Amino acid sequence: MASSMSMEWDRNHTSVSTFVLLGLADGKEIQLLLFPIFLGIYLMTLIWNLGLIILIRMDSHLHTPMYFFLSFLSFLDICYSSSNSPRMLSDFLKDEKTISFIACATQYFSGCWMGQAECCLLAAMAYDRYVAIGRPLQYSAVMAPGLCQKMVAGVYASGFIGSLVQTVSCFHLYYCGPNIIPNFYCDVTQIISLSCSDPYISQMILFLESIFVGFGSFCVIILSYAFIVASILKLSSIKGSAKAFNTCASHLVVVTIFYGTSLFMYLHPSSNHSKMQNKVLCVFYIILIPMLNPLIYSLRNKEIKEALKRMAKTATHLSQ
Q1: pTM summary value
Q2: Distance of alpha carbon 54 from its chain centroid, rounded?
Q3: CA distance 275 to 271
Q4: Max CA pair span of the chain
Q5: Helices in 135-144 by DSSP H: which ranges?
Q6: Cα–Cα distance measured from residue 148 to residue 294, given in angstroms and rounded to the nearest whole number
Q7: Residue 8, H or E segment
Q8: CA pair distance 296, 111, nearest whole angstrom
Q9: Where in the numbering of this chain does the G-protein coupled receptors family 1 profile domain appear (predicted)?
């Protein structure tokens, strides 16, 4: 352990300057086998999300608040996946998976920023669906381009501030002993447990931000869907009710997967599941969800399918 730990001498105490990531698997053969799998997942995440952004930007039929928010969700998924996947992929090819103190803080800051912003964006998208179903006649006036832009700016600003506060509070702690993180990325809960100083304030900040950002966004989503259900029940036509529900089905699936996985990860007692199970949950939450989101929104979405057909026709005409 001493060989893998880089130390600096400061005021008669040793301070950790690097952390050691244990990664997903121990064996070199397994790591080399996992490398092409996760490389493929990362490339698909980039291609599908970037393709969805380009499609929404190019097709004028998709220039609506719903797809405006969806394009930024895809951008968040690209950034979120990119904050962890490249490091994990490079570690598959390394014998010693060390990460500097600053790099660890940077990785956590960027991942936390995107994660918190996604919570807020999903809440904004739920509100958009409520206005579309509950107040259809006022939809264009309420969800004006100016308001949508301000909501997205607020989403990024809230994620940035929350992430900055968490990162500073966590990495301002004193680390002098163990430096091994039993995961493939810099998980703040595991990092705080390595601190030699009192982590109470950092833990309280983490808890409060989870309540305000995570639970607060979740409450907005639940409230929005309560109003959506109430609005759907008022519709006399079964066909109209089905059509109204279908417009928010994809968002509901994304919210269920996102919050279901995160709640299971952070609220489930660590003693009740193994380290490998925790890593599998992290892989699903950090690596797979950003890849699945564009698929969920695209597979059953007629407007996106029609936009793809229009783009294909345009490309065919241009090539002739």
Answers
A1: 0.90
A2: 20
A3: 9
A4: 76
A5: 139-142
A6: 20
A7: strand 7-10
A8: 22
A9: 48-297
CA 184, 278, 206: angle at the middle one, nearest 5?
Answer: 80
Instruction: Quote the percentage of the chain above a pLDDT of 90.
Output: 62
pLDDT score of 239 more than 50: yes
Asked if 303 and 61 touch (Cβ cutoff 8 Å), the reply is yes
Counting residues of the chain whose pLDDT is more than 70, the rounded percentage is 92
Residue at token pair 């004193």? 174
Domains, the chain: 7-319 (1.20.1070.10)
Cα torsion 235, 237, 242, 243 to 10°: value is -90
Residues 6+ apart with CB under 8 A from 190: 181, 182, 183
pLDDT of residue 202: 92
Residue 13 parent element (H or E): strand 13-16
Residues 255-294: pLDDT tens digits? 999 998 887 776 665 544 567 778 888 899 999 999 999 9
Cβ atoms of 232 and 245 within 8 Å: the answer is yes
Place of tokens 């279901």: 260
**The pLDDT value given to residue 3:** 39
How far, in Å, CA of 81 to CA of 71, rounded?
A: 16
Could you give the CA distance from residue 69 to residue 128 in angstroms, rounded to a whole number?
A: 9
Tokens of 153: 């700016």
**CB burial string 41-53: b at 16+ within 10 A, e below:** bbeebbebbeebb
More confident residue, 311 or 165: 165
Distance CA 104, CA 69 (A): 30
pLDDT tens for residues 198-220? Answer: 999 999 999 999 899 999 999 99
HEC secondary structure over 276-304: HHHHHHHHHHHHHHHHHHHHHHHHCCHHH
| Tokens of residue 43, six digits | 């490339």
CA 35 to centroid of chain Cα atoms: 22
